[in-house]
Design a protein that fits this description.
The complex is a heterodimer of chains A (about 90) and B (about 210).
Chain A (H helix, E strand, L loop, with lengths): L1 H12 L1 H17 L2 H4 L10 H28 L2 H5 L9
Helix pairs in contact in A: 1-2, 2-4
Chain B lengths: L1 H22 L11 H35 L5 H15 L1 H8 L3 H31 L4 H22 L4 H22 L8 H7 L8
Helix pairs in contact in B: 1-6, 1-7, 2-3, 2-6, 3-5, 4-5, 5-6, 5-7
The chains are: A mainly alpha (about 90), B mainly alpha (about 210).
């Protein structure tokens, strides 16, 4: 619990650094796993590691938002809401 | 609807027009399988790109990073800041494609520098789209997916030249478009001038 709360405080103090470390970490890890890099599971020759990288960026945003403003913050997160809307009034 | 059309069509239409100017009617020579099949493939790639790649990526880089820093920085500085971190985030791509050898390590800074320049212009357009559409991550993701689908599929149909020519023409559209937007908005990129003025002097050293 203490480790979680101190990690949360660290993320809250340096949200951009935390976002980059999480998203870049996921990117480097997936780029170093041959079965992921060599996978041809996606159509049109699209790279599977790119999916993991992109999901990593989304996940990093989600985690940092959670650390910054808790569950309520995630629920009303600008990014989550506005990913599905043309215009996000009141943001 | 206007913004959806701009996000969807500006790069493919702009690049096709530039290719027509450079290569003449040869640019619109019927691809093998015909135009309906070629265009259907571009649309399919666009949908897959948008769902699997760009939505999550732009939730991170536009909806989180750009949004959380937009009240702190002037739009041009914001563009530079997000583009720099975005270019860093793309570095694993280079190693995934080129491997982890010494050659890939040596070429990484050059690839990063080229990537940063092109991502800076793309980000300027993303900031403009974001501000002008009332902070829509979806519109930014659509524009991003449109560019990626166009350069990875459509470029082979409308640019009868080398890979370098394809990259230069499609990236050139983004550079010209972004430069025009930067000049036309005097660097505000769709942000209200009062909002920009109140940001001046705010500390930005909390990364």
């Amino acid at each position: 619990m203490n480790a979680w709360s101190s990690a949360g405080r660290g993320v809250a103090r340096r949200p951009v650094l935390a976002f980059m470390l999480i998203s870049l970490g996921i990117g480097f890890v997936t780029a170093a796993i041959p079965p992921i890099v060599d996978s041809e599971i996606l159509p049109f020759g699209l790279p599977l590691h790119g999916v993991f990288m992109s999901l990593g960026a989304g996940l990093a945003a989600f985690l940092v938002t959670a650390a910054l403003s808790g569950r309520a913050g995630v629920a009303t997160s600008h990014a989550a809401v506005c990913a599905g809307e043309f215009r996000c009034a009141g943001t | 609807v206007r913004w959806y059309l701009i996000a969807l069509l500006s790069v493919p239409v702009g690049a096709t027009l530039i290719s027509l100017v450079i290569y003449g009617p040869q640019a619109l020579a019927t691809p093998s399988g015909g135009w309906p099949r070629a265009l259907a493939k571009v649309v399919a790639v666009f949908v897959v790109q948008l769902v699997l790649f760009q939505l999550a990526e732009e939730i991170g880089f536009t909806g989180f990073l750009q949004h959380h820093r937009q009240d702190r920085y002037h739009p041009m500085k914001l563009t530079l800041y997000v583009a720099l971190l975005w270019a860093v985030w793309h570095v694993p791509d280079h190693f995934a494609e080129e491997g982890w050898g010494v050659e890939a390590l040596i070429s990484a800074p050059v690839v990063f520098a080229i990537g940063f320049v092109s991502l800076f212009f793309a980000r300027a357009l993303f900031v403009w789209f974001y501000n002008r559409t009332g902070f829509s991550v979806l519109l930014v993701a659509i524009f991003h997916a449109s560019f990626d689908a166009a350069i990875s599929q459509l470029s082979y149909d409308v640019v009868p030249g080398s890979n370098t020519a394809r990259f230069l023409i499609f990236s050139g559209v983004v550079v010209v478009f972004a430069t025009a937007v930067i000049i036309a908005t005097k660097g505000q990129l769709g942000r209200a001038k009062e909002a920009v003025e109140t940001q001046a002097g705010v500390s930005d050293l909390d990364m």
